[in-house]
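For concreteness, we quote verbatim a single protein encoded this way:
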Amino acid sequence: MTFIVGDNCIKCKHTDCVEVCPVDCFYEGPNFLVIHPDECIDCALCEPECPVEAIFAEDEVPEGQENFVELNAELADIWPNISEQKKPPEDHEKWNGVLNKLQYLER
């Protein structure tokens, strides 16, 4: 099993989770993070660190976000690895909790 990053990370992109990952399995896009499923060791350290509650165990993905399992795997293969915390986007607060943000994902 692995953890995945879901919808609420889009345009929020906090990187608190990246700092605690012991295997550096996070990958960064312009406005979203993903977890590489083949690198994640299921340690669960990242999940409580996410201030917008956008990280889920693969078997606990919220209804309607199942497509993020495949999306994390796809994008982790093309985006660069991130292993250090960065500042979130300036407007991150206005995006927290907005539903159905997939349309805003920048590849």
In short: The chain has a mean pLDDT of 98.
